[in-house]
Amino acid sequence: MLHSAAGVEAVNPIHENCFRKLRQMKTFRLWAVVLLAVLSLGQSTVWGQGARSGKKPPSTYCNPLNLDYTYAIVNSHKGVSYRSGADPAVVSFRGEYYMFVTRSMGYWRSRDLATWSFVRPEKWYFEGCNAPAAYNDRDSVLYVTGDPSGVMSLLYTDNPKKGDWKSVPAILWDLQDPCFFIDDDGRAYIFWGSSNTYPIRGYELDPENRFIQKSDTVELFTLHEGRHGWERFGDNHDHPNLRGYMEGAWLTKHDGRYYMQYAAPGTEWDTYGDGVYVADSPLGPYQYAPNNPISYKPGGFINGAGHGSTVKGPGGRYWHFGTMAISVNYKFERRVGMFPAHFDADGLMYCDTAYGDYPHFAPSEPGRAGEFAGWMLLSYRKPVRASSHLEGFTPDRVNDEDIQSFWVAESNDDTQWLQIDLEDVFTIRALQVNYHDYRSDIFGKQEGLYHQYVVEGSIDGQVWRILIDKRLNDSDVPNDYVELPDDSQARFIRFRNVHTPTPYLAISGLRAFGTGAGPRPPAVKGLRVERMMDRRNATLAWRPQTDAQGYTVRWGIAPEKLYHSWTVYDNDTLEIRSLNVDQPYYFTIEAFNENGISVPSHTPAAE
Question: What's the rounded Cα separation, in Å, for the pair 481 and 409?
């Protein structure tokens, strides 16, 4: 390991040249792996070997999920290149999990809901399902449907690993965003809806006769924007003209009741979420849940938690997958998020999205799956510098906690780097590198996409050690999240680019998580809540704290049901426009910094 006063080179250049040559010779990839292992053993200052080895699965995950998201097909939307991953339909099948995502030219498979691999099926729609539906029929057959035209057949297979899909010889007409469901008694149903005018509808299918329509169409429920603030269109539900959309039906049966989930108000907005109606039979009548929306994440690094699915994961715990917005290159540029889902003692369904883009324990972690790991954000607005940048895309955009802003380097070669001064020595538990597709030229599901980089840490800015070494990575990792060993301490973090598949190196978030040794903030004082004349809206204000990095506001329909949350940075006020008119609410607030979270404030009622 070499050190320099400039602090730019931390890896032996002889070794680096070897890696560069071996990367260019794919037939010698195995030898490169062996060489890396030998060199690593000889460097006592290399950290993070456990994180790089792949032998132990990560104990945590971080949204957005790190999938090799498919790019939109060429010539769509005037040739704009963007990753279109959205509308996840996740189901279990024979001890594994399958995720079907809009227009992905395939789907993903997992054993633990945290680590996913892409499946290129033998027979499939060319582009892939649009807002797909999926259903596991008693581990015998897996059904999928959802074509962009709204005219489709049910597809089925008993071997989704292989993907030899066949079609039911019947057509389902005029269905947008379908939901397919088979009840415990064998009766089958289809539900659908994607409109700012029409309701969610459904009818019964005949499983003995090619799943053709068996019953009359039933209108289940529609939008009521005048009563449900969260169903209004726009950022923070504040579009001056357009109505909200209702879409993305998904039916979950729990304790004999039917929970019909639906998305509103629009996939590109920060307030995209899922609500639920509940019934005693699949075709209703359905009753609106008073704690709606049930899945909602309007604040933080990446927003949105709508149009998704709910699946029972390891240990019988429920998980809700939803759509998260980027919407920079195009309004349908999106990612997938995963949140723990619950049913309380009163049968209310809700999802825990608090600190929803911070590390949480993975579904495979018994006794703590879905819980917040307690690792705080260390990198927020800390001093950052870079090797270069294009005008208007400065390096401070990588740690402003906004996925819609990003740094762009002058080139995408291996001379480009980022460095963040955390301003104190912290125990770093995980890092997340979020790439952005700035002026990308990739379309469809391309072979051979991969990202390669190194992240180094330093106590003094002079002596550097490797935290993450992905110089030989051969995977597409657009939102790469990596756990580190417990002893990874550093004040300075440096990202060094090796290879990116896009014409430009662009990063929207270089995020460091861990713990500090200082005090947590004290409880927030002076919380004031005013319910407006339009009872869909409330304004909050509180006394700012100098030692707080940010605040998390929580609210709900009872003091013990504070199921909603909103993370706020750099502000001491918040306007919430998602309330239900006839419902009283309770609010509390907590402050947080690099060392942890304060105790919550009191919970005043906003009548």
Answer: 21
